[in-house]
């Protein structure tokens, strides 16, 4: 039986030098067939497995992961959770996801270190101000919080922001505050969902790389080819963030996605200095301070498609110089680590969660700010797998929108210039 | 930093260039092509794990458009794949 984490279990295990905690998930032998195969043990794959079991009672499920669980982009992102999107189709979905994140620690009995703090957009051009005001009105309709503040108020709330004065190339002209925004612990999200899925009977197989999708004589999906042999299933879910086209093309399916590299870096830990998430869309970077005290800084995506996982010097220098123009004192900070990850971005920048032309093959992709989407993404994808029809919150995000040229162009996804 | 070779100016830093997207098949005539092919042309670009051909614009230089092959795994500019 799965142990519960609590103050008491902590104290109890302290007496045995923490050597008797039971494993958070099992490593069962691989079976030749399952009802559902989920490719990718990232946030989306694991959350989907969890909700499939918990909400729909579908437990003969294998999650196949080429590396280690939670080692993909979920380990590489900057954990900004927010719902300030632009489209009537997007906002309710992200509102739901942010709400689910708030209850996740309790639901999964796993400490997500969830920390709700406002996100402040630092606005430096009038075009951007108009765009964000428009977003504010769109969000008002759906109950998400987004409000304009003055430059004085912005500087009061972010004292470290001393650049961007009247003589700067891009002077700060105002700000927008999104109070629902939060950060939390990305590993905990992966581990919490893995533990939850496992306790409902789902199998997680690490070091199991899917090399091709297999179709049967009728054209429908029949299973997958892996480095550990063939595994059969009538339903296969692709949740591989960035590598979607690489896999779907093995089944002859082309998708309107391109893979991009996004980068981030962190500084040495310093004393508490910034208690909001600062987003500078005109300058092309954003930052927040982690519980450990590090500045966590994200930059703009690389130009051109990329499957690289490291950072490009060019993009890195650009982000750093823009950051120093607004936070001149940060030039004293030592930068400790830098990394990149790859995301697939759909033609209209909105996610794709859809059945495909290959019967039984389901994709979740295009999550180019997809960390915040993990709880609602898993719940709605589980619904699609179990019922065969999209969840109402995701109905606009199927592949049909490309066929009918009915795109959901989403400007709210991007911090890029 | 990539060095991009401009036919006009020689090798220049990537920072002088603007990215122009992957090279696609020629634009079909929308009146003659099937809906499926038209949608495909409008929305779907090559996304290979490996060499891709793309356009770059020497915007902060001579203004010339050029195309090159780049490996999406390494970012290195590479020779076109065999036969192209
Ligand atoms: C630098 C950076 C900053 C970001 N910041 C934010 C942010 O602040 N807020 C936000 O909401 N989003 C952010 N994102 C986006 C977010 O990280 C992703 O959208 C999200 O993590 C992707 O979903 P996932 O967690 O399921 O993917 P992943 O964690 O990448 O899961 C996919 C898994 O599939 C596995 N896989 C791939 N191919 C195969 C195969 N053939 N066989 C088996 N397994 C395979 C991978 O190893 C991986 O573990 C950021 C991304 C990056 C790179
Ligand atoms: Zn030139």
TrEMBL record, chain A:
* InterPro entries tied to this protein: FAD-dep_OxRdtase (IPR006076), FAD/NAD-bd_sf (IPR036188), Rhodanese-like_dom (IPR001763)
The record's keywords, sorted A to Z, are: Oxidoreductase
Give the coiled coil ranges: none
Q: Name one GO molecular function term.
A: oxidoreductase activity
UniProt GO cellular component terms = cytoplasm
- Looking at the record, the residues that make up the Rhodanese domain are 36-80
Q: Which Pfam family, any one, appears in the UniProt record? A: DAO
Q: Tell me what this protein is called.
A: Sarcosine oxidase subunit beta
TrEMBL record, chain B:
Give the Pfam families listed for this entry. SoxD (PF04267)
Q: Which domain of life is it from?
A: Bacteria
Q: Which GO terms describe its molecular function?
A: sarcosine oxidase activity
Q: Output the GO biological process annotations, alphabetical, semicolon-separated.
A: tetrahydrofolate metabolic process
> What is this protein identified as?
N-methylglutamate dehydrogenase subunit B
